[in-house]
Amino acid sequence: MKNQKKALVLGITAAMLMPTYFGNTAEAAAAEPDVAAMQAEINDLTARLTDLENSLAAAKEKQEAAKSAKKAKKESPELKWSGSIKTGYMYDETKTGKVKGEAKILATTTVDKTYDIGVGIKMKSTSSEPNNGKYSSEKNKIKLEQAYVGRSFGPVYLRAGVQNVSLGEGLWLSKASVNQFTANYKMTPHDSLFAGYGRDSQDYLVNDTNDDKPPTRTRLLKFAQYQHDFSKDAYAGLYFGTQQPERYFGIYGSTPIVGKLGFSAEYVHNNNKHKPSSDASIDKKHTSGDAGYGYDYTGANKSTDGYVLSLNYGKAKKQGTWGITAQYLNVDQNLFMDDNYTDWDDYITADGFKGYGLILDYATSDHSKLSLLRYWAHTNPDGSNVDSKGHALEESPHYSTYLKFVTKF
């Protein structure tokens, strides 16, 4: 290779000297060729050519390295982080206050261009003021909010694992941390089916309120929902499902009225008439009595119902925007065995709930919102339901004021 380069340089040099050498025969004959100068020029050209080849090789190597790095970066999974921080103060009918703090962190990514996965943690701390002059208390919890694997098959999206599940407006079911197999089928641009099967577990990683109690009992949770979207802000749907042993049917919808004014509603019917008791001495067949399973007041043997009506104006999305929502809720006693799954879990319990709510929202930034929630209500007992001593639940006030600040990222 070196000899070839030398011959090439020599040929180029000879070609450059030919006109001079043969153009003047007398001078050429008289002058002797300067061999040393020619050799030096050849060596210089050879060195320059070698430098050019080395530079070209280095440039190619650098280009290939950049391509490989870009390809590796493109193919490697990229984590996307999101979450929220919430802090607030709640004052209720017990005439005591609670300071609440909550943090959620969720990481999602796509693996092998095929599967999307998500892992989320929720950390919650609640400090309560002394109740009736007794003592203050604190609760701390860490929950596995999400840990799922998803995959799309055309219009059908399947997901398995711990995930967030929400039906309708959330009156029966709007909850993270449930173990489910779900399928979402986009039938048309305006019609969709959503179905799930699994357990209604909470997946607490740390819960300092459990003490020496047995684990919370999980129940079979399955559902199917159909929704039709009339427009971006108008939709209607229905669903049915079971949360063992309860059997639910619901209808819901939302629509704009005029301008920024809108209306939404949901109705839930539970046709299970036998309500298991949490007291094993009363209902040995359907409850363990020590795992928090069942109702404290039973015996009515009736189906139960609940509904929520919401009138809203505006939305607090961008900085400086605001919204106001007025609500009316009417929920029978024993509609839900466990109130942790409804979107109104701070208010609705197995004792029932009947009253009004007012929510004021203001966006302090594009990612932060200040909210004031006020509810005027009372429990909604059925006199036919009694406890282990034969006493029915008396109607009692159920009101609260909640000021919270939420920042999402």
Write the layout of secondary structure elements.
Elements: H1 2-23, H2 25-30, H3 35-75, E1 80-92, E2 97-111, E3 115-128, E4 137-153, E5 156-166, E6 174-188, E7 191-199, E8 204-207, E9 220-229, E10 235-243, E11 246-258, E12 261-270, E13 304-313, E14 322-331, E15 353-363, E16 368-378, E17 400-408
Antiparallel strand pairs: 1-2, 1-17, 2-3, 3-4, 4-5, 4-8, 5-6, 6-7, 7-9, 9-10, 10-11, 11-12, 12-13, 13-14, 14-15, 15-16, 16-17
Features:
409 residues, alpha+beta, Porin, 2 domains, 16-stranded antiparallel β-barrel, 3 helices, 47% strand
Describe this entry's structure for a reader.
The protein is of the alpha+beta class. The protein folds into two domains: 2-73; 85-408, Carbohydrate-selective porin OprB (Porin), CATH 2.40.160. It is 17% helix and 47% strand. It is built from three helices and 17 strands. The protein has helices at residues 2-23, 25-30, 35-75, and strands spanning 80-92, 97-111, 115-128, 137-153, 156-166, 174-188, 191-199, 204-207, 220-229, 235-243, 246-258, 261-270, 304-313, 322-331, 353-363, 368-378, 400-408. The chain has a 16-stranded antiparallel beta barrel with strand order 1-2-3-4-5-6-7-9-10-11-12-13-14-15-16-17. Helix 1 crosses helix 3 (35-75). It is elongated, with a radius of gyration of 37 Å. The two termini are 62 Å apart. Mean pLDDT is 86; it is low at 20-26 and 287-291.
